[in-house]
Design a protein that fits this description.
This protein is an alpha/beta fold and 201 residues long. It is built from eight helices and six strands.
Length: 201
């Protein structure tokens, strides 16, 4: 296959030249670069205001979408930027949830029976973050949608000593949780050298 054919069949130029692990490593490094101070916290607003980060985040999140997804759902206003980027990348429509707890309501077009995936940009410890994610899941379920997954960019609940958000969502709603990056994860976990490029000598 020549270069023109590779570029024509690749979903985007980076995926033609880099493995998913390399793209993840570069994105994660860029996300951490906008973290305030050195305490591991990430300013998710700064992350969502950078088009280059949003484009690459959408490309990686799209690979985690389950087959048959009909619609994305997010909390407004926190999840709108990353969900819009994912919607533009995939062509999937999305609806938003306003309010929290028992006041959470689905707004926008949504239909009973649709297979929905909830998108949240950042989750923290389960005791803090799960209620927000759970409110969005519950609002989608109340509208008659089927929710199988919650996708997140960053999960900072790792090492918090609390139950994970994944456990809470699975126990309460049988919904799976997937984050692109656990916060404070070791950057070396994402190899920046594609295995096929390693010199065997």
């Amino acid at each position: 296959m020549n270069l023109a054919q590779v570029l024509r069949t690749a979903p985007d130029a980076p995926s033609a030249f880099q493995s998913a692990r390399q793209r993840s490593a570069e994105l994660y490094a860029d996300i951490l670069a906008v973290a305030p101070g050195g305490d591991g916290r990430v300013d998710i607003e700064a992350v969502q205001s950078r088009p280059s980060i949003l484009r690459r985040t959408a490309a990686l999140l799209s690979e985690a979408l389950p087959p048959g997804t009909d619609r994305l759902v997010c909390a407004a206003p926190d999840g709108i930027a990353v969900t819009t980027a994912l919607a533009l990348h995939t062509g999937l429509p999305f609806a938003t949830v306003t309010g929290a707890g028992d006041e959470a309501r689905l707004t926008g077009e949504a239909h009973a029976g649709e297979h929905a995936v909830v998108v949240v940009p950042l989750v923290g410890a389960a005791r803090d973050a799960a209620p927000g994610a759970v409110s969005v899941v519950r609002a989608a379920l109340d509208a008659g949608m089927r929710v199988s997954h919650v996708l997140s960019v960053l999960d900072s609940s790792s090492g918090s000593g609390d139950r994970s958000v994944a456990d809470v969502l699975q126990e309460q709603y049988e919904v799976r949780f997937h984050a692109l990056f656990p916060a404070l994860s070791d950057l070396s976990a994402f190899s920046t050298t594609d295995q096929k490029e390693v010199d065997p000598r």
